[in-house]
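Re: export button greyed out
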Amino acid sequence: MREELVWLDEESPRARNAVQASLEFVGALGVLLFASIRGLFSGRLEWRETLHQMAFIGAASAPIVALTSAFTGAVVTLYSASLFVEVGGGNFVGGALAVAMFRELAPILTGIMVTARCGSAIAAQLGTMKITEQIDALRALAVSPIQYLVIPRVLASLVMFPMLGMIANFAGIVGGWVVADAFGIGLSSFLQSIRLLAEPFDLIGGLIKTLVFALIVSLVSAQQGLAARGGAVGVGRATTRAVVLSMVLIFAANYFLADLLFAKR
Amino acid sequence: MKAGVPALETRQLVYAVDGKVILKGIDLRVEYGEVVGIMGASGSGKTTLLKCLCGLLKPTSGEVWVEGVNIAPLSERERMPLRLRLGIVFQDAALFDYLTVYENVAFGVERHRKLSREQVRQIVRERLAWVGLEGVEHLYPSQLSGGMRKRVGLARALAMDPHIVLFDEPTSGLDPVNAYQVDRLIVRLNRELNLTAVVVSHDVVSLMRTCSRIVMIEAGQIIAEGTPETIRQLEHPQVRAFLRMASSETLDDVPWLGYNIGQEAQV
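Workaround output, generated via the alternate export path:
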C-alpha cells in the first residue's frame, strides 16, 4: 500500500504522458479512497475539523444551492408551463418539475455548486499546505494527512450533500411554483400533480446520487491538493484540475447512476 | 538509547528519481549528543538526505537506521510512530497557518499523549520559554517575524521530547542577529538537554558556530568530513572553493564584487 502515491513531491517521478498521468490519477484516487475507509474505522476521528468542514461544505453552501435551484426550478417551469398549458396539461406542471428536480437537477446542481465553492477551496488549501511543507510537518508529527485532512472532508461531504440535495429540491419546487402561479396554475393542483407523478424513489435515488457526488468532489479535490507541486502556479493548477475533474466525473457518474437507478422504472 | 547504537546511520543510501540520482550512496553516522552539520550548495542533495533521514522520503536503496531501527523498508504507516523520535524544524518553519502558536506547539502532544489540558498548557509554555518566546501563544504565524516563526517551529518539534532534532536551513532568510540567536539556541539545547542535532545548511558561519562535526556533500556524495577546524584547514579544492565563496572570516576580507567583475575567472 503506497500512501506516498497520494502526496507526490518535488522529488517524486513525474508522469511522462497523458496515459501515465491518468493512471497515476486513478491510482492515487483509489489509494486515497482505500486509506480513507481504513482510517475511518481504525484511526481517531478529528471531530473538530469534521464539524468545521460540515459548516463550510454544508451550512455555508446552502444559500447558493437554494438560489441556483430556485432559478432552475423557475426556468424549467417557464418552459414546461407555457407548453403544458397550451395543450391543456397544466395539471402536470408540478409533477414534471418535481421528477426533474428530484432525479436530475437537484443532485447535479448540488454537485456543481459545491464543487465550485468547496472543491476549489479544498484543493487550494491542501495545495498551499503541501507547497509550504505543512503536509510534511503533519507527517513529521506522526499525524496522517489522510486522517487529519482528507477523512473530515469526505465525511463532511457525505453528511452534507444529501441535505443540500433536499434544500435544492425544496428551493427548486418553490421557484417553479412561483412561475406556475403566474401561469394560473394553483398551489393545490401544483402539489396534487407532484403527489401524482413523483414517487418516493425519485427522491431517494436523487439523494443516492448526491452521496456519490460527495465522494467524487471531496476525494478528487483532496487528491489534487495533496499532489500539488511547483509553487503558487502549482496550487493554481491543482485548483483548476480539481474543479474540472470533479465536474467531468460528476456528469459521467450521473449518466451511469441514472441508468442504474431510473432507466428501468 | 542503547549503548553502541548510533542515533542515526545511513548505509549506502541512494535516492533516485526519473533516472536522476540525487544521493549516490551516502554513509553517515551520527552519535548521540553530536551536532552534525551537513554542508553543501543548493541542489547538492542535502535536503533530500534530511527527508530520507526522517522517513519523509523513501530511499531507492540502502538503509536508514533511526535509533537502531531500519526505516527504509517500512511503509508510511509503519514509519509514522517512529517519526516521534525525531523532531524536524522545517526551512520556513511550516507552521500550520490556520492555528495559533499555542495550537501549533500543542498539536503533536494533544494527539499522541494522554495528558490533561493543564499539563499540555504547561508543556507548551515551557517549550516556548526554552526558545525564548513568551506571551505569543494567542498569535497566528502570519503575525510573527521570520525568526520567531523558526523558533515556534523548534518549540513544536521539542514538544514531543525527541532525542534527535533535524534542522533544515535553520538560519536561511534570517538577519545576522536572529541567525546568531537560532545558532545559540541549537548549541544550548545540545548542552542542556543533550539533544542530538543534524543541521542542514549552506550557511558556513552558522555551521562552524554550532557543529561538532561537519559533513560536506556535493552532487549527492560526501566529499569531506571532520570537525569545523579540520574542514577549515582541508586542502580539498571543492571544500576550499565553497568556504571561500560562502564566507569570509572577518568583514575586512569581504570583497566588493564590483571590483572583481571581469576577473571572476581568477577567483
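The longest strand of chain B covers residues 20-30. The button fix ships in the next patch.
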